[in-house]
Amino acid sequence: MSRIPSLSMALLAGFLCTHPTQSGGPLAQEPKSAPLAKDEKLETFDYHLAGMKKQGVRRVLTVDLGDGVKLELVRINKGSFKMGAPDGEADAENREKPQHAVD
After folding, report:
1. What are the backbone dihedrals phi and psi of residue 91, each rounded to the nearest 5 degrees, phi first?
2. Nearest Cα to 19, choosing from 74, 87, 92?
3. DSSP conformation class of 95
4. Most CB atoms closer than 10 Å: which of 5, 35, 42, 93?
5. CA of 78: how far to CAs of 3, 32, 97, in Å?
6. Other C-beta atoms within 10 Å of 77: how many?
């Protein structure tokens, strides 16, 4: 974190480090009324729920760490969500199981 002194830990506390095109992560809902941070943007993403492809909206902050390295952070709304693949998902890998609640 020392390479990005202008970005405080308080700002990072509301984000989860992830790749923006990763599927199977937390289901995003339409972002609440909190204003976007500097360098934060809204983007749509696809996810699967009960075998159906759906689309959500998430807030993404990209931080340039220098030397061509960028860190992408996706905001996770307060509350809990299910992480991992359900038992019946055919294409799930072992590392995605068991599905569990994250608070």
Report:
1. -90, 5
2. 74
3. G
4. 42
5. 28, 11, 23
6. 16
Residue 14's Cβ-count burial label (10 Å; 0-12, 13-18, 19+) is middle
Please say whether the beta carbons of 72 and 19 come within 8 A.
yes
Cis status of the peptide bond prior to 98, with omega within 30 of 0: yes
Residue-wise pLDDT tens digits, 64-79: 999 999 999 988 777 8
What confidence category does residue 23 fall into, taking pLDDT thresholds of 50, 70 and 90?
very low
Smallest CA-to-CA distance from 18 within 48, 54, 68, 58 is with: 58
Domain ranges of the chain: 9-102
Tokens 């061509």 label which residue? 68
Phi-psi sector, 13: left (phi>0), alpha (psi -120 to 50), beta? alpha
Q: With beta carbons less than 8 A apart as the criterion, state whether 69 and 58 touch.
A: no
